[in-house]
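Researcher: Here's a chain I'd like modeled. Treat it as a single chain, no partners, no ligands.
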Amino acid sequence: MVLKVLTAIKIMPCLDMKNGRVVKGTHFENIRDAGDPIANAKFYNEEGADELAMLDIAASVEGRKTRLKWAKDVLKVISIPLTVGGGISSIENMEELFKLGVSKISINTAAVKDPKLIRDASRNFGREGIVVAIDGKRNFEMPSGFEVVIMGGKESTKIDAIEWAKKCEKFGAGEILATSMDGDGTLSGYDIQFTRNIVDAINIPVIASGGAGTLEHLYNGVIEGGAKTLLAASIFHYRKISIKEVKEFLKGKGIEVNI
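Model: Modeled as a single isolated chain. Structure tokens:
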């Protein structure tokens, strides 16, 4: 299926954070260092990223809130919207982040455990500021073939990922961050079926995440996957592909981007 792209596609580098450093793993494991968050954030801001994500990947597992200082320090060096996630489990957590200047918050584990949190967040801060992150992995016991996993991929839920995406939209999510655990860190391409199934099931924008390794992968995320935003980490952190290269490639393929 080919999607007609009507709005500019956004490019979103992602800072997965642990112990104050940017890290990157494969399938959410084998975590390795990927640099300083401030230096990376500043670099991506200057390079033309449309948005930036910063996800505290250990917060839920460690049973704590996201580190406010990390967000505060990154906000000082960027002028683009920042989405922050990891360990956010209350309206109070969200309020603290929005007061700092964060544009959007991303909730995952807490939303699965208490779906009412999505509704409360949307009512308090507006749908446009609420992203629900869905970490999915292939499980053919699920109706769609994809299961929601939480706690950084360590805990299965027996929840169908596509049905959960529909509920998130109904509860008030403004955007879905769809990360393929199977594709994460592999550089073998987005899980197009996972992304496309979510896109086809809902009417809010979807961020593709997990596995981008080439320019063609990013192109396929839009045309075949239907994503409105392309999130990538490894290719940008290790300087395999620049944001400028991505935008020029997509533009050359007839896809609207913000240059």
